[in-house]
Each structure stands twice: as C-alpha cells, then as structure tokens.
C-alpha cells in the first residue's frame, strides 16, 4: 500500500508541474514541503494546497523556473530576496532562492518540522527516517531552528495543530530550550 501511495504521488506532482519544470530547468529543481506532507495525509485535491514549494539548485535553475512561470502567464503574487510566489492554475508556487541546494538531502537541514521535510525530484523521494512515522501519528517534531524567529516558530506550530497534528510536552520543552539557547547566544554576540 505504501508503494502505491508513493507511485500515485509521483504521478500527481509530475503531471501537475514537475515534468515540464524539470525539462525547462535542466533538472535544476525539486519540490518539497507542505504539499507533499498534505498528499501523504490524504489531501489529493490540488486546490486544497496552500502552496507548492519549489527549491532550486542554482541561480540559473532559478532563472529558468521564473521563465517557465512567465511563459505560462502565471501571476507574480509576491517577491523578496528569498522567494518568488506565482499563482498559476489555481495554485500558489513558492520558488525559493535564498540558498541553492545541490540535492534535496542538502535542503533537509533547513526545513522546520520533520512532517514538512519531504522532497521529490521527479523520480525519488527524500525524507528523514522518521518522516512516515510522524505523518502516520500526526506528530510535530521540530527539525531546524536556523532562521526561524520565535514568532514564526509559534505561527508554524499553530498552523500544524490546526491541521490536526499534535505536539508532546517534551517537544515543547525541547523547542523552548532551543529558543532560549538561540536568544542567549544572540545576546552575547
């Protein structure tokens, strides 16, 4: 059954966007994040995804991805130094370019929670060993504290709780300790 879900997920996202995008970007991008999480949680209606995250391997790949969306007359909804958001066929696509990654494995260390730490490059899935367990058990386990403010951490946690995920007291304690360490380190630098 698990293999069937992965095969269906491959077909779904390849047909939705990745087949064309990989061709245009010379295999320079991959998907990751919440849309994959939602798919594995049984949400297979593309209109129910808040967005689809696209990660790129280089500035050239980023520029080719942008050209792809422009060629499709996608609407640029937001832009910053770290991402561009396009609206196309009823879906928001976040094209990340705050850092370039050689592979999905390199990007894993920058994703907030293990339940969001899944990537797909058109052929293979990449995720931590406990990803499936955390998805099946609706568990929130924080993965990365780099670049996440206290407010953003709280916002992200609340969003996942609204989606039906749970967080243990031990995990809340671990997050608070990491936030304290981070703030304490910042005060002394």
Give a short summary of the structure.
The protein has 189 residues and is of the alpha+beta class. It has helices at 2-24, 34-40, 59-71, 104-107, 131-136, 150-162, 169-187, and strands at 29-32, 52-56, 75-79, 83-88, 91-96, 119-120, 125-126. The longest helix has 23 residues, at 2-24.
Give the end-to-end Cα distance, rounded to a whole number of Å.
51 Å
**How many alpha or pi helices?**
7
- Structural class by secondary-structure content: alpha+beta
Roughly how much helix do the residues carry, as a percent range? 40-55%
Strand content: 15-25%
**Overall average residue pLDDT:** 91
Q: Biggest sheet, strands in spatial order?
A: 3-4-5-2-1-6-7
Biggest sheet overview: 7 strands, mixed
Shape estimate: globular
Task: Note the quaternary state here.
Answer: single chain
Radius of gyration, in angstroms, nearest whole number: 17 Å
Strand segment count: 7
Note poorly predicted spans.
none
Secondary-structure element string: HEHEHEEEHEEHHH
Which terms would index this structure?
alpha+beta, 45% helix, 7 strands, 189 residues
